[in-house]
Design a protein that fits this description.
126 residues; alpha+beta; five-stranded mixed beta sheet; 5 strands
Length: 126
């Protein structure tokens, strides 16, 4: 699977309620410009193994074909793609949530929200 064929794509934690809500908001604002793939889906696992490192599941990722931006580093490129891109995502969004009741607890929401600000990474694809 070549990333240039499917980008732009957001890879999010589909086992986290807050992350799934974030992905739902991205899907709403992007209006089909960005594909959404869960970390634990078949496509997400392939992308993680092929392009990301061992810290991949610690944050969400935005991949534009040239770079993979994780966590805080992904916010500006993601917003730019939503606001200024005119192309449609070449693959269908694979949007799923596999969360249990524990991930909806207030402390889990706080920890996941704080991790967005503390985690940041950029990986060059080419």
């Amino acid at each position: 699977m070549e990333i240039q064929e499917i980008s732009p794509v957001v890879i999010y934690d589909n086992a986290c309620h807050l992350c799934a809500k974030f992905a739902s908001a991205v899907n709403f604002f992007a209006r089909g410009k960005i594909a959404l793939v869960g970390h634990y889906s078949e496509t997400g696992e392939k992308l993680r193994k092929q392009y990301l490192d061992s810290s991949a599941t610690d944050m969400f990722w935005f991949i534009d074909g040239k770079n993979a931006y994780g966590g805080r580093a992904a916010l500006l490129p993601l917003i730019g793609e939503i606001l200024f891109s005119k192309k449609r995502a070449p693959i269908q969004t694979i949007f799923e949530e596999t969360c249990d009741a524990g991930c909806k607890a207030p402390n889990a929401v706080f920890v996941r929200s704080a991790s967005l600000l503390t985690h940041s990474k950029k990986i060059k694809i080419n």
